[in-house]
Amino acid sequence: NAGVTQTPKFRILKIGQSMTLQCTQDMNHNYMYWYRQDPGMGLKLIYYSVGAGITDKGEVPNGYNVSRSTTEDFPLRLELAAPSQTSVYFCASTVVSGNTIYFGEGSWLTVV
Amino acid sequence: GENVEQHPSTLSVQEGDSAVIKCTYSDSASNYFPWYKQELGKGPQLIIDIRSNVGEKKDQRIAVTLNKTAKHFSLHITETQPEDSAVYFCAAIWADNYGQNFVFGPGTRLSVLP
After folding, report:
1. Is A1 on the interface with B (CB under 8 A)?
2. Is residue B40 very low, low, confident or very high in pLDDT (cuts 50, 70, 90)?
3. Could you tell me which of B35, B23, B31, B49 has the C-alpha nearest to residue B89?
4. What is the 3-state secondary structure (H, E, C) of A47-67?
């Protein structure tokens, strides 16, 4: 029972570097999401996707990009890392409206 | 759009006591209200949920109540144990022609003191 899998778990980036956070789910879920969670704060939606080939911006999309070429995968790309992007990133997925949202274990990113 | 408020932001209780966390929402179209528990260093995990056609749901020591008229729902934990210490998030979810929408509350940090 893999569920939602995120990699890497931890990463330190230098300012200006780029990286991709990987997210994959094996539940055939249509909806996938990327959230960031700053220390002591709630979840803020970065991007979401309602199916392969369809993505849309959330509350805080600046500095990020996503793609959804398959149902399973929803990678999050940081092009020019900034200290403000130091956060914990959670990927999540769900089937259809009103169903349980499953979260990954999180990716801890530090930009120095 | 939907707005979800959650209170209190922090809560400390003695082991064995009850804990109550309350959330209010603004959009009457919301019809599904899950609660998530996030332990340190982990992702949020669903612990209980309630749909708008139900007023109360219970699962062992955890219960959720929903007041649709007042637009609020609450998480009740009885006989608290140290392992209940975590951050709890509520959420309000609704569907429209464009798909599913959900908004999380800001979270409550619960500490159960032995």
Report:
1. no
2. confident
3. B35
4. EEEEECCEEEECCCCCCEEEC
> Does the CB of A3 have a partner CB in chain B at under 8 Å?
no
The mean pLDDT values, 10 residues at a time, for chain A of 112 residues are: 89 96 94 90 89 91 96 96 96 79 93 96
* Nearest CA-CA distance, residue B79 and chain A, Å: 26
B49 to A100: CB separation less than 8 angstroms, yes or no: yes
* pLDDT at B12 > cutoff 90: yes
A94/B42 Cβ within 8 A: no
Distance, in angstroms, between A91 CA and closest chain B CA?
Answer: 9
The pLDDT score that the predictor gives to residue B52 is 85
Q: How far is B70 from chain A (nearest CA, A)?
A: 21
What pLDDT, on a 0 to 100 scale, did the predictor assign at position B54? 84
Q: Which two tokens stand for residue B113?
A: 């003191």
Residue B38: strand, helix, or coil: strand
